[in-house]
Amino acid sequence: MISERFAFGAIPDDRTKPSLEFEAIRRRVTEGGPEEYIPAEAFPTSLDNLSKSVFERWNVLGNKTTWVDENNVKRQGIGNCTAVAWANQRRLVSKLLGGNEVYPELKHVVEVYRAGKGNDQFDAYKTDKDYGPGSPYDNGMSIQEALNFLRKNGGGPDRVKPVAFARVNQEDPKAMKDAMAIFGSLWISFQCLGYKRKGEEDKWPKVFDWAGFDGTAFVNDPKAEVAAGHSVILAGYENKRMRCVSWGELREMDENYIEASRVYDVWAVIWPEHVGTRNFSKCFLCFLFLCLFSLCLPFLRCG
Question: Residue 84: pLDDT above 90?
Fold first, then answer.
């Protein structure tokens, strides 16, 4: 696993800390062998919770190479993709399940981002010379750091806290699709690949021409290096492609990227809007109780 803390972007979770595992809940081992709680036929073959007919556009929230603030001032990009992914997930869940869209703004994103190690004095409106983007206070953050902050403090204009969260196997596309079908979206972090820009190989932070993460040819290209960590929400899939929101746009991630061990961490998060709904999956109530109590409750089995 990559352990660098990049100059910006998402960083891997600390795997020494305990976490609830999606796979441990999804399956149980009995004397007769592994048994699925949720039958395979319960999951749709394709999913699209990012339909443009529902969500016309997505906000950058500072997470792009450059961005323009509310005063039309052009600013350097922030390494706050993990917190932006949280904002996008809250928008999706509040809209699709709550019926009332709540989209956290940049100030809410920065509040969460400051929970990352070394980011406590970060200010989106400063420069790299003091506390702003590209400064020593813009260090990226892990999903785990964000979740721990939100669990204790809540976030956004509605100060919502997650009810529970479980780690999903980051090397298993099937498990990721199953979890996506249950929860509607996943919060993930992964490597972003790039090629060193000619003539600027020795610069730090490293300067890359982005290879992206939505193609396949470069995944195992030895010339492609890890340019940064990145975090997005996945909220759709079809065949070997998964749909996500990144840098204010709809994009796709190929399963080859997952199978090449480019993904750091994947989390399924239960929000208050999930409770009492079966919009995403008829098996959700079963899964909710299992997540909350980490128990095998026969009377909650689906199928």
Answer: yes
Q: Which residues contact 6 (CB under 8 A, 6 or more apart)?
A: 79, 140, 205, 228, 229
> How far is it, in rounded angstroms, from Cα 108 to Cα 160?
12
Alpha helices in the chain (DSSP H): 22-26, 81-96, 106-113, 143-153, 173-183, 255-259, 284-293
* In the block, residue with structure tokens 């020593």: 136
Chain CA centroid to CA 233, Å: 4
- Model pTM? 0.82
CATH architecture of the region 28-50+59-293? Alpha-Beta Complex (3.90)
d(CA 263, CA 202): 26
In the chain, domain spans: 28-50+59-293
Of 88-92, 151-155, 257-261, 283-287, which range is least confident? 283-287
Cβ–Cβ under 8 Å, residues 119 and 5:
no
